[in-house]
UniProtKB/TrEMBL annotation:
InterPro entries: ABC3_permease_C, Membrane_comp_ABC_pdt
Source species taxonomy: Bacteria, Pseudomonadati, Pseudomonadota, Alphaproteobacteria, Rhodobacterales
Transmembrane segments: 21-41, 259-286, 307-340, 360-377, 398-421, 427-453, 768-795, 801-826
GO cellular component: plasma membrane
Keyword Iron attributed: no
Protein known as: FtsX-like permease family protein
Length: 841
């Protein structure tokens, strides 16, 4: 009976319109829309990757081998199971112009055969076929090159350049490759040539660093899962990596998924900020309904009827706000699809996807429930006689135990839902814990601010404007808590993002001039090492040179079990890793456990492993690792663990073996050169001229490329944090608007006792500025703590406060609160005191 009556009462109340609920709706709509939009874009990219998996991969399936070509058995298996096979060789090299003043540039070379591409087409400028472009002219084979590299080297179409000891003619600019996204991150722009034209270049010698990818065009209806298992079984021990069209760009898919999860979690922070506004709006609405509730209670309405009446109203309005957010978040990516696609390096299929919209709606519903239960429960617990005086301020602070339990269940459900949808429970729990911690810190700070303001007000004699401001802040009815919570949480997220971004940039480039080498040189042949070292030994601009033999290997087994089964998805197991050998322990490494093998040791293979990575993978002394190097399995026992410092961009190897374990394996050497900046150009010119096959990687250029990627990531996270801040700003406006009647009454009283407009406005301004500065300072503390936690426990890097960003947060909090407070203070100042006082009881 009470539910039917409550429904009738709620329907009649809703006829009064949305007055007082605009901020409520705006907060829910904005938060839900942000989550829906992020989820829709993520789903569009994942759908594009799935539909275009074969095109991104360059075939229906791919077998990748590390620094070797397929042998006869592997080639025969691929030709037996595929209609066509295309071989692609991928490596880094130096492109050198043929001129009086040669220009050199790092390039990622893709050497192809006649079958490339199996799927899609290469676009060139001028518009000629790839086959014609690579035919070259009568004297030189052809090549096509990324326009960025063409401009950097100062080349024109028809000019010649060299890769290693082989000359090529530039036939066209490379506009796009169908499989570019599947190739992943590269340090240099792309150059395409034919593999056959590199036979005299010296770049593909045994032991040099290259990978071969065999793309297969499979028969219609081929079972990719079955072929994958068959390849692993038939070609066991070959060290192959299988990829197929089911996930043609796994690295991109994983990155998009993780970034999407992070942005959804940031979007949830926006909903949490909006929840503060939702709670404040509900409380303010119920306060205005004092007489209505009192009348209903007087006429016999029980607690359940009162609660259900306003729960239904809030529920209907929540559904309206959530529906608007879902519609906005679902349609915005479709409307902005051309702009988004132009900035994406991968295909995306934009459409209305139910799953992310449902996820966003569920988040919105749980947030609305979580933040409205408390004020609704307090309202229904107030006696009728009290409601005629002050409905909510006189109610007890905590609702009944049943509502506390329901609130706890709503919070747990929200966190569990986020953990389930994100697929990253620990990240979600840590993020949720961070939000709850920030809210607790801000709530405690709000009480502290009120306490300090109350004590300070008594000492502000002689400064009436300041005293009025402090007295107002100390009044629990003035909404100081709402301002600090809403604005503070938005600023906290923004502060944390700023600290994380600055910390990552500092970790990558902050210490570069002091600790990082100038160049990495790779593919140095053993017989070239004496000449290479001789050039550098007598150069006064060179401060240090480190070199080591270099092989690459894939850890396939741990103690006879598949490596992934033992160590999970640890990054060391993702792809091949550097392997070196040495009779003696490196001077820059400290042995933390075990012992190095004796000099000239020739027994069973032994391996020294990086200590930190060993701990993460659960490895210990005595464990056996099977490492596939150039198609050969080598099983070695871990006999020592050592510290490896990767933070200084110097030389470091996860694995080092005794020399006899790798005897006969073809390999090259790698070297790092530390030199003064003015000496770098001459070093590069001399070494590249004397040893054309050597590839030089300038560390500063690599840093710039990584920094560019981080800048894009920082922009994406900043947009997410901006949603939280915008929501906080809306809540702040709502709080200021809701407090306008109180300001009007206060201004009337102050005018009556002789205060002028300037002093009253100054009081209102001081009140807003003090609250804004306080919210900014608390947010700064929360943001610094959040940035420190992410830097320390997720990125495992040192943390230092980025003060420009930090101080900007405090200034933003002060400015936003001051502007909102002053805007809603101007109208109360213009109202006649007599008119206000006559209208008051």
């Amino acid at each position: 009976m009470s539910l039917r009556l409550a429904t009738r009462l709620a329907r009649r109340e809703l006829r009064g319109g949305l007055r007082g609920f605009r901020v409520f709706l705006a907060c829910l709509t904005l938060g839900v829309a942000a989550i829906a939009a992020v989820g829709s874009v993520r789903q569009a990219i994942m759908t594009g990757l799935a539909q275009e998996g074969a095109a991104l991969l360059g075939g229906d399936a791919q077998i990748e081998l590390t620094y070797r070509f397929a042998d006869e058995a592997e080639t025969a298996w691929m030709e037996q199971n595929a209609d066509r096979v295309s071989e692609v060789v991928d490596f880094r090299s130096m492109a050198v112009t043929r001129s009086d003043a040669p220009q050199r540039g790092l390039t990622q070379v893709k050497a192809i055969d006649e079958a490339y591409p199996l799927i899609g087409a290469v676009r060139l400028n001028p518009e000629i076929s790839l086959s014609d472009a690579l035919d070259g002219n009568a004297t030189l084979p052809g090549a096509v090159m990324d326009p960025v590299l063409i401009e950097r080297l100062g080349l024109d179409i028809g000019d010649s350049f060299a890769l290693g000891t082989q000359d090529f003619v530039l036939s066209a600019a490379l506009i796009s490759e169908p499989d570019a996204a599947g190739d992943g991150f590269t340090l240099g722009p792309r150059t395409l040539v034919r593999t056959a034209d590199l036979k005299d270049s010296g770049l593909l010698q045994p032991g040099t660093l290259f990978s071969t990818k065999y793309r297969m065009d499979l028969p219609v209806g081929a079972d990719l899962a079955e072929l994958s298992e068959q390849a692993e079984s038939v070609l066991q021990g070959s060290g192959l990596r299988w990829t197929d069209a089911r996930n043609g760009a796994p690295g991109i898919a994983e990155f998009v998924s993780r970034l999407g999860v992070f942005l959804v979690l940031v979007g949830l922070s926006g909903l949490a900020v909006g929840g503060i506004g939702v709670s404040a709006a509900v409380r303010a609405y119920l306060a205005r309904k004092t007489e209505t509730i009192a009348t209903l209670r007087t006429l016999g309405a029980d607690r359940a009827t009162i609660f259900q009446t306003y729960l239904i109203q809030i529920g209907v309005l929540s559904v309206v706000g959530i529906a608007a957010g879902v519609a906005l978040g679902g349609l915005a990516p479709i409307l902005l699809a051309p702009l988004i696609e132009s900035r994406l390096p991968v295909p995306a299929v934009f459409s209305v996807y139910p799953q992310p919209l449902f996820e966003a709606a569920l988040y919105g519903l749980l947030t609305a429930l979580l933040f409205t239960l408390w004020p609704l429960a307090r309202a229904e617990d107030v006696r009728a006689a009290t409601l005629f005086r002050d409905a909510l301020s006189s109610a007890r602070r905590l609702p009944r135990a049943a509502y506390l339990l329901a609130t706890g269940l709503a919070l747990a459900t929200l966190i569990a839902t986020a953990a389930w949808f994100s697929g990253s429970p620990w990240l979600t729990l840590w993020t949720g814990g961070g939000f709850v911690g920030a809210l607790v810190l801000l709530a405690l700070s709000a009480h502290g601010i009120r306490y300090v303001a109350k004590r300070a007000a008594t000492r502000a004699r002689g400064r009436p404007a300041l005293r009025w401001a402090l007295a107002a802040i100390s009044d629990p009815r003035e909404g100081a808590a709402s301002v600090v919570l809403s604005l503070g949480l938005g600023l906290s997220v923004l502060a944390a993002v700023g600290q994380i971004d600055g910390t990552l940039r500092n970790a990558i480039s902050g210490n570069l001039p002091d600790v990082a080498p100038s160049y990495f040189f790779v593919d140095i042949q053993k017989d070239q090492m004496p000449g290479f070292s001789s050039r550098l030994e007598n150069d006064p601009g060179v401060t240090r040179v480190e070199s080591a033999p270099m092989l690459r290997g894939i850890i396939s087994q741990i103690n006879g079990q598949p490596a992934h089964r033992v160590a999970g998805d640890h990054w060391v197991l993702e792809g091949d890793r550097g392997v070196t050998y040495s009779d003696n322990a490196p001077q820059n490494a400290r042995i933390t456990a075990g012992e190095w093998w004796p000099e000239d040791y020739s027994g069973p293979p032994q391996i020294s492993f990086a200590a930190e990575e060993a701990e993460e993978m659960g490895l210990k002394l005595g464990d056996e690792l099977t490492v596939n190097i150039l198609g050969r399995d080598i099983t070695a026992t871990i006999t020592s663990l050592r510290e490896v410092d990767f933070s200084n961009a110097g030389m470091g190897f996860i694995m080092s073996m005794n020399p006899s374990a790798l005897a006969g394996a073809p390999h090259s050497f790698i070297a790092t050169v530390y030199a003064e900046e003015e000496a770098e150009a001459a070093i590069l010119q001399d070494l590249a001229t004397q040893f054309p096959n050597i590839t030089a990687i300038r560390v500063r250029d690599a840093i710039d490329r990584v920094s560019g990627l981080l800048a894009g990531l920082a922009s994406a996270t900043s947009y997410g944090a901006g949603v939280s801040l915008l929501t906080g700003f809306l809540v702040l406006i709502g709080a200021a608007a809701a407090g306008e009647p109180a300001r009007r009454y206060e201004a009337a009283i102050l005018k009556t006792i002789g205060a002028d407009r300037r002093r009253i406005l100054l009081s209102f301004g001081l009140r807003s500025a003090l609250l804004g500065a306080a919210a900014g300072c608390v947010a700064l503390l929360a943001g610094i703590l959040g940035g420190w936690a992410v830097a320390t426990f997720i990125f495992d890097t040192s943390f230092a406060v980025i003060w420009p960003s930090a101080l900007g947060i405090v200034a933003a909090g002060l400015a936003v609160t001051l502007l909102a407070g002053l805007f809603f203070a101007l109208r109360p100042l213009s109202v006649s005191p007599a008119r206000v006082l006559r209208a008051s009881d």
